[in-house]
Amino acid sequence: MPVSTVGHVKTWQRYDAATRLKIWGGWIGGVVITLICWQVISNGTRWEFVSDAPQQLSIFLQRMFPPDWAYANQLWKPLWDTITIATLGTLLAISIALPLSFFAARNTTPHPVVRYVALLLIVVSRSVNSLIWALIIVYITGPGVLAGILAIAIRSIGFVGKLAYESVEETSYEPVEAITSTGASRLQVLSYAIVPQVLPSFVGVSIFRWDINIREATVLGLVGAGGIGLNLNAAVNLLRWDQAGMIFVLIFILVLFSETISARVRQVIT
Questions:
Q1: What residues does 10 pair with on adjacent strands?
Q2: pLDDT digits over 179-219, tens only?
Q3: Cross-strand pairs, 9
Q4: Which residues contact 169 (CB under 8 A, 6 or more apart)?
Q5: Residues 103-147 pLDDT 10s
Q6: Is residue 230 a contact partner of residue 147, using CB atoms and an 8 Å limit?
Q7: Is the distance from CB of 213 to CB of 89 less than 8 angstroms?
Q8: CATH number of the domain at 73-269, please?
Q9: Counting runs of H as helices and runs of E as strands, what totals does the chain give?
């Protein structure tokens, strides 16, 4: 800690002069950036619309509630399609992302070029939102559940692959060294020394991604990729807000269910 001398008395200071200058510079820079961003937002905002937002929200909620409970009988299949999209998309992503993670990790990749290719695939997957992937795939394969499954899978590969390869790189070297000293092959070292260390992390990441995919699958129907989003889009276009309210209720129940399952599974593996 720096100590300054005032006259003949030494006083303790938390930061020296250079550090204090940097801190003040950071605060001033943050305030300037915030003001610039606010100016940009203000120029692009119609404040007369914002002023009556509470009234519009009140009208919107009055139209939506009470929901059309009878409409729920038509939503069980779309709801099941949403669960199917999230589950199969996650399983397909895991089957690709886990081998990819071993290619991307420094301590398990067979060659640096292979590692760079694996990292590129992971980055490309993570760079595009699942809704954009769904738009592209719907254009290629046509609308339906298949497009939703592929969109979820492609988006999830990057998420699962990144966390998985980081977990592989953080494995302890002692088990690897012990098994290697017995004359085990590279595949045996991978199976008996590395996989057991990272398996709980793999399972946790996969369950967490499935939980996220349940949420993302509910909106893919807005671009024609199947699921309950199709019904939500139709209800909004027809101004049937009571039906939209029923869909929101079911989505909330579905997300709550997936969150409960995800939390229980993560509790068990940890």
A1: 5
A2: 778 777 777 777 777 777 888 888 888 888 888 898 888 88
A3: 6
A4: 105, 106, 107
A5: 988 888 888 898 899 999 999 988 888 888 888 998 888 888 899
A6: no
A7: yes
A8: 1.10.3720.10
A9: 12, 2
